[in-house]
Design goal:
The protein has 167 residues and is an alpha+beta fold. The chain has a single domain, classed as Gcn5-related N-acetyltransferase (GNAT) (Aminopeptidase). 33% of the residues lie in helices and 35% in strands. The structure holds coenzyme A. The site of coenzyme A (COA) has 19 residues, from strand 4, helix 3 and helix 4.
Length: 167
């Protein structure tokens, strides 16, 4: 992964974020939502993954409430999927959430979104609930969560995942 860097997403990335978000078929966020998140949401943490040249290839965001985090959004540009960038983003996001004192992390995901569910499962998320028609009529969400983020066993999982992050 040395060809990519992770750093903060900023409002200067907005146009590139919207280009990537356009590729998401399910409930893409609007310009206004991203603007609010990047400028006004004090609980938000947004990360970018960029090529060494600085081009935005993906982003992820979480809301942190004391010892709990909620993954709000995550997208990798279509032509860069499957290269390990989603794993890299999620790894770093969880690392920062842990550093900021989080023990639990949760999210919603469309029940048919196999790549995302596989990614979250790899990071120890398990199904914790179900929200019927969460995205729209007929599209349900799974609630997934990972707990005990500071336990020894989760540390071990992260260490293994860190080694696996694709070169
Ligand atoms: C979900 C998403 C962020 C994953 O990003 P990515 O860069 O492709 O992820 P990675 O390459 O790190 O792959 C992570 C894991 O996902 C799984 N995965 C990746 N592509 C997959 C596919 N096409 N089918 C099934 N599983 C897949 C694998 O388990 C993979 O881990 P492995 O390579 O160690 O086996 C990306 O597919 C995406 O942006 N999708 C559209 C937006 C979205 O659905 N966001 C999630 C909202 S909850």
């Amino acid at each position: 992964m040395s060809r990519y860097i992770i750093n903060e997403l900023s409002v200067d990335d907005l146009e590139d974020v919207l280009k990537i978000e356009k590729e998401v078929e399910l409930s893409p966020w609007s310009r206004e939502s991203f603007l609010f998140e990047l400028l006004n949401n004090k609980n938000a943490l947004y990360l970018a993954v960029r090529s060494k040249k600085g081009d935005l290839t993906g982003f992820a965001g979480a809301w942190i409430f004391k010892d709990e985090a909620h993954i709000a959004t995550m997208s990798v540009s279509k032509s860069f999927r499957g290269l390990g960038l989603g794993s890299l983003l999620l790894y770093r996001l969880i690392e920062i959430c842990r550093e900021r004192g989080c023990y639990w992390i949760t999210l919603e995901v469309w029940e048919k979104n196999k790549p995302a569910i596989a990614l979250y499962t790899k990071f120890g998320f398990v199904r914790a609930g179900f929200r019927k028609n969460y995205y729209d009529l007929n599209r349900n969400a799974l609630i997934m969560w990972a707990g005990s983020l500071k336990n020894k066993s989760y540390n071990e999982r992260l260490k293994k995942l860190n080694k696996q992050l694709k070169k």
